[in-house]
Amino acid sequence: MSLLAAVEASLKHGTLYKASNAFVQWTDAGYIRAAASVADKRCSTGHQLSPIDGRLIAIKDNICTTGLPTTCASNSLKGFQSPYESTVVKKLRAAGAIICGKTNLDEFGMGSHSTNSASGAVNQGTGGELSVGGSSGGSAIAVASQQCWASIGTDTGGSIRLPAAYTGTVGFKPSYGMISRHGVIAYANSLDTVGILSRSVKDVQQVFAITRGHDTWDPTSLTEETRTKLTSAAKARPRRPNLRIGVPVEYNVAEINPTIRTIWQQALERVISAGHEVVSISLPSTRLALSTYYVLAPAEASSNLAKYDGVKYGNAASKPKLEANVLFATGRGQNLGDEVKRRILLGSFTLSASAFDNYFLQAQKVRRSVQQDFNAVFGIPNVLQESSAANPEGVDLLLTPTAPSFPPKLASLAHYTPLKSYGDDVLTVPASLAGLPVISIPTRTDTFGLDTPPGSVGLQLIGQYGNDDFVLDTAGQLETLLWNR
């Protein structure tokens, strides 16, 4: 299919799936067609800027763009136009990609089902009954419904991978610091990671090749020297004729849907039949990972979102109370959603003098234990941590389910408690705490001869820190194995 035909098809799907509420803002269709025509001429004359030249790519609405508003799906930023563009968007434009719009999300990235949005809930677009996951739900369903070729999201505790699992797309969270966060509106700085969603591993690799790299504007961006060290460490991993895949016993939680567990087991059998080794490993600290995440992330959020007071930054209250000490509270109360307020309150408490030692400090210690557990099972060391050493008997990668359950119906979420919703992240959070590269790959349930509920089952492949290319290359092999391609 030519670029022009692909663009027209995406615009058509944008109309067909408008009810999915994937986008909060589309780029003008005339501009998209004109940009696609120019890109098509470049490609036909051998002057293609990159493999993604002329491709439609959507951007999650917590990533700054100069041509479109950036609202984080929050009334506090309604109508906000960023004066600068994020590094990731600059790189995509320079490579010829066409930014087709901004995608819907849970407000400020806080949620697991893309329902906590001032722009309304996102849905699967097939009657609107199923969750798309969160918080990058708009980015995921935009790809799944072919409204764009690929999309950029953010992953703090599973916000790319959970939507990928629910929508049958490929979702990649790189190692922390691989892709610049400059221009990404912060939720939790030490966890926020820019990532990619598309319909194949190959497409993800092409976007990653463009967007990765050191950025002086991002203090958390890995330097070129560090990237070289990571590449050298990856090349020095134990050489074996086949892969050694680890299965963490702690990930086999009771909450996993029996059908998902069966698919996981049968996928592992396929891995074995392809000549690879599957071994059981233990990551004991991961049992504490979910509770640790929901101490650390809200703590950072409470600090990051303090600026949205409606006076110095963000929209003011529509009906402000001018009495002493209530002006800020009124604006935040009117413009921030319930889940955001809940996490700000939780984070403020854990950072308070009376709770800091028992909550925040202890959570940081558990986070280090989670990182050390991962380091202990991988065959290559984490070169950023002196305590990490090479383990000749270690595994190359881990393979687990991405989500413990199938996508729930949106109507059922009304009966969810916050804790139940947080539990959907139980299998994605551990790798986020350790900053590891992870990719969620969809399975074809009919391949396994199973009668499954509507939706998709994602399996996630987890690698050692900085081992992103190896994770992606292996994911391509696994994709073929699972889809019989």
Automatic annotation (TrEMBL):
Domain Amidase: 7-472
Subcellular location(s) of the protein: Mitochondrion
Highest taxon of source: Eukaryota
Gene Ontology CC terms: glutamyl-tRNA(Gln) amidotransferase complex; mitochondrion
Protein keywords: ATP-binding, Ligase, Mitochondrion, Nucleotide-binding, Protein biosynthesis
Active site, UniProt feature: 60, 135, 159
UniProt catalytic activity: L-glutamyl-tRNA(Gln) + L-glutamine + ATP + H2O = L-glutaminyl-tRNA(Gln) + L-glutamate + ADP + phosphate + H(+)
InterPro entries according to UniProt: Amidase, Amidase_dom, AS_sf, GatA
Gene Ontology biological process: glutaminyl-tRNAGln biosynthesis via transamidation; mitochondrial translation
EC number: 6.3.5.7
GO MF term list: ATP binding; glutaminyl-tRNA synthase (glutamine-hydrolyzing) activity
Main enzyme class: ligase
Membership in a protein family: Belongs to the amidase family. GatA subfamily.
Role played: Allows the formation of correctly charged Gln-tRNA(Gln) through the transamidation of misacylated Glu-tRNA(Gln) in the mitochondria. The reaction takes place in the presence of glutamine and ATP through an activated gamma-phospho-Glu-tRNA(Gln).
Summary of subunit composition and partner proteins: Subunit of the heterotrimeric GatCAB amidotransferase (AdT) complex, composed of A, B and C subunits.
Protein name from the UniProt record: Glutamyl-tRNA(Gln) amidotransferase subunit A, mitochondrial
